[in-house]
Amino acid sequence: MYLLCTITASLISFLFLKWLKRRRFCMDVKRLDGKTVLITGGNSGIGKETATAMAIRGARVIIACRDMEKAEKAVREIKATSHNLNVFHMHLDLANMRSIRDFCKTFLQREKRLDILINNAGMPSVLDWTDDSFSMCFGVNHLGHFLLTNLLLGRLKECAPSRVITLTCSAYKYQKLDFQDLNYNLFPFFTYCRSKLANIYFTQELARMMEGKGVTAYSVHPGYVQSNWTCHYSILFRIVMQVIMFMFFVSCEAGAQTVIHCAVADEVTAHSGGYFVDCQCASLRPFAKDAGVARKLWEASERMVKLA
Ligand SMILES: NC(=O)c1ccc[n+]([C@@H]2O[C@H](COP(=O)([O-])OP(=O)(O)OC[C@H]3O[C@@H](n4cnc5c(N)ncnc54)[C@H](OP(=O)(O)O)[C@@H]3O)[C@@H](O)[C@H]2O)c1
Q1: Is 192 a catalytic residue?
Q2: pLDDT per residue over 11-34, tens digit each?
Q3: Which domains does the chain have, with CATH numbers?
Q4: Looking at the DSSP assignment, which residues form a beta bridge with residue 280?
Q5: Whole-angstrom Cα distance, residue 68 to residue 111?
Q6: What's the pLDDT tens digit per position in 236-289?
């Protein structure tokens, strides 16, 4: 009797976890031959999985990474899995504005096309500072990608129709932006939430500015994913998280699906500026749809990265 109860409870738990981790997969098999896709942080986790999917579809793929050894290894693996030799890596450190400017200069000299830009790289909840004294989360997740996208916008327009996809997180809803202190760096999780809210406003304002110019923009929550983000924490935290992630988080392959969907599906272009979850456009909390705040953040970001 005891054994039967244990087996039944285990089975129910297993089915419940499977249900909890269910995810839509991108069913669009469109080829991307002749297109160039740039993915930040494509050496790891969701970014690497996305890069592989883009390469399988025939795109020229460039992963922009801060660690050249990891990047070279990832390129070898992506080539082997996709059977596409048109995969390259370039150096980019989003925590350093000089590195972003140098990267864009080299990219624009070397590459004639840019059809899909995937702003994937991200720092989880950490309290640190970038080389330019921005809070690490806000600096890398928002400001770094803000500068990168702006410097590449001309090429995206030349190659229109083109797309910009930015990874955000559903945790955006736990914080609001404080314009008196955009560089907020007090509670690690809150700095992360604010940077991910900034990704949403950035996408909305970019979509508004590019209306009629052939460049569309999407923000994506990939779900909670078993990637390598725990590498920034202590060994104890990592061990605990491995167990939690195994039980509740989805694979990187599943986590990449909404990004892939936004990169290839035709129907998403009707929702430029939209927030996507599980391969569909999702609703946002009202405060995250405030066009005035999005514009204000854009202008503040321009000043911070010295574009204005
Ligand atoms: N995993 C989740 O549950 C989850 C949930 C919601 C949103 N997201 C978002 O999904 C995106 C991908 O994250 P992931 O889960 O795949 O994590 P990951 O495996 O840790 O990948 C993050 C990538 O970003 C790169 N990166 C970090 N700082 C960088 C910098 N200064 N310059 C250039 N690259 C940098 C990392 O490079 P290194 O390998 O050199 O560190 C790595 O390639 C992130 O934007 C994250 O916020 C993830």
Answers
A1: yes
A2: 776 666 666 667 789 999 999 999
A3: 32-304 (3.40.50.720)
A4: 277
A5: 19
A6: 999 999 999 998 999 999 999 999 999 999 999 999 999 999 999 999 999 999
| Catalytic residue, candidates 192, 201, 218, 275 | 192
Pocket test for ligand 1, best of 40, 228, 252 (most atoms within 8 A of CB): 228
In the structure encoding, which two tokens stand for residue 149, read together? 């996208």
Q: Please name the residue whose Cα sits nearest to atom 26 of ligand 1.
A: 121
3-class secondary structure per residue, 77-141: HHHHHHCCCCEEEEECCCCCHHHHHHHHHHHHHHCCCCCEEEECCCCCCCCCECCCCCEHHHHHH
**DSSP per-residue codes, 234-246:** -HHHHHHHHHHHH
In 3-state terms, what secondary structure has residue 167? strand
Q: Which residue lies with its CA nearest to atom 43 of ligand 1?
A: 41
DSSP state of 275: E
Cα 56 from Cα 50, distance rounded (Å): 10
Burial 35-70 (b: 16+ CB within 10 A, else e): bbbbbbbbbbbbbbbbbbbbbbbbbbbbbbbbeeeb
- Can you tell me which atom of ligand 1 is nearest the CA of 42? 43
